[in-house]
Design brief:
heterodimer; A: 225 residues; alpha/beta; Rossmann fold; B: 402 residues; mainly alpha; abc type-2 transporter like fold; 4-stranded mixed sheet; 16 helices
Chain lengths: 225, 402
Amino acid sequence: MQFDISNINMTYKKKKVLTDVSLSFGQGESIGILGENGTGKSTLLSILSGQFLPDSGSFMMDGTDLIKNEKLRQNVVAFVPQGTPLIEELTARDNLRLWYSKDSMLASLDSGFLGMLGINSFIDVPVHKMSGGMKKRLAIGCAIHANPKVLLLDEPTASLDILCKERIYTYFDYFKKSGGTILLVTHDEREISLMDRCFILKNTKFYPYSYDGNMMQLANNLRNE
Amino acid sequence: MLLPKIMLIAFGFSLAVIIACGVVISNSSATKDSVKFSVGVVGTKEDSYLGMGLNLLKNVDDIKNMLDIIEFDSEEEAKQALDGLEISAYAVIPPEFVDSINYFRNDSQIRYYSDSGQKGLSNVIMDEVSTIASNIIICAEAGLFTLQDILNETQIDSQKYWEDVNSLFMEIMSVVIIRSELTEIEDLGMSLGLTTFAYYFTTFSLIYIMLISFAKTSYHIGQTKEFERMAFAFGINKKRQVMSEYVAICVGNVACFVIFELLFGIVFVTGIISITEFRDNPVGNFLLFGLGMIPVIMLISAMEMFLFEIISGLINKIVVVFMLYLIFTYISGFFYPKEILPATVRFIGEYIPTGVSFEYLRMVIQKKSILLPIIEILIYMSIFIAGTIWARRHNINKGGAE
């Protein structure tokens, strides 16, 4: 299964945000998207997840444009936004039931991705009583209800402690091994190092970037000109 | 998890509203006991006929529904009661008053004192009292005294016929003071075309269904923009999101109202509160009112959803919505009949959602055509739902270019 993002252009409130953004990836890859705040990283994920329509460009999967084919995109692409896409007053179980049928939820909790995320341990806890790590795991659990091939994550481990981060990274590894692809917006050094490939979004354009552990060099590269 | 909490709040809030409703109704200025004016009378004990006349005013004549006559031993006591707002006015009957009547003189008058606030109304009442006193009681009494005088002048011992004279007086009274028996007095206490009980039952039902929205505050607050964005990414577009939430809010509000209706029904069945308009078929009309509330609940739910969508921030949501509800209910005449409001405010009050809802329920209670108010309700409902969809689109897109 091959994915091709081609020449995505986007203008938001009369401001050019993305210019000819292109990227190709296959199954089981992990791709990090880096960039300064406000450079259009989240906008790119919003386009790929179908929230915004680009001015031009395509997101092809084996010859089918996922931007135009809404039904297929909903089954193939999952999006976890930056904040908490959960209903605070509901428990983990109730939040999951908004997305899953009862049987598929129980099956996934028993031996699937939900079980892997460790959601069983806080299944009856209301969201407002959860830690940040629990919320993020639950958010990912909700997002992957349709067994997606591509997981889009917007700063998934921001403000989480190391143990929570490691648990989520373990899940990323599991997801990749099962054939999933991860596209992740991040500012986290550890996350960057875990990605197979990284791209920097700068001056509305996409540039490949190979991280060698030098943060100063990365910071210099990130700056808009 | 959320629903039981909402139901529990609805139960407690229903009890509170029903108790408040009962208190308001029992103390309503529209009920017959509390529109009575208290008038003091000084100097009635010297004359038995005058005393009897006042007794008839207190217990037999129609004016008993408007006037409480309280007898005082001295003018000083009456003045203190007037100063203490226990009475609205007092009348002093001078000792020579009865003699002046007995001897066909007009040189003694009843003196009447009222406080400034009650002057106009109490003068009207006093006119009524004077009319009764002069035209009926005093004329009759003067006639009887004349009869006694004639008997005395003709050397017939009037004491021998005293019992007959008394019974003649009572016969005259029973003939002239029969107005209470000509009509049956019904306490309607009309407010905006409804009886007092129906009026307060309607307004409290509306206030309840508006304020119960705060039981869902945690839901309105807890639902994040990220949730809406994720739902949108999975193909649940803004219209579907808003409509599904609207159905949930509506069902929640209906469930809350059922609790209110059940508790109110218990009060209603026990007869603590009775509604004149429901008298021909109490249970049927009560249930009909409950069914009639559904379009109103649909409107209030749409308004609730819209307001909580467009207002951002926890404190703002609660304070602004509450203030808006308070203003809406006030100018639509939910607390007091809106006749007390200026014409412009009254006009606005009639056409805002709360006013339209009240008008619709009034038609339901009076079994009149609900076509016009139901159209108004549907228009408002559509505006609120469309406004929520617009606001949701704005909220989802607000993520911007980050």
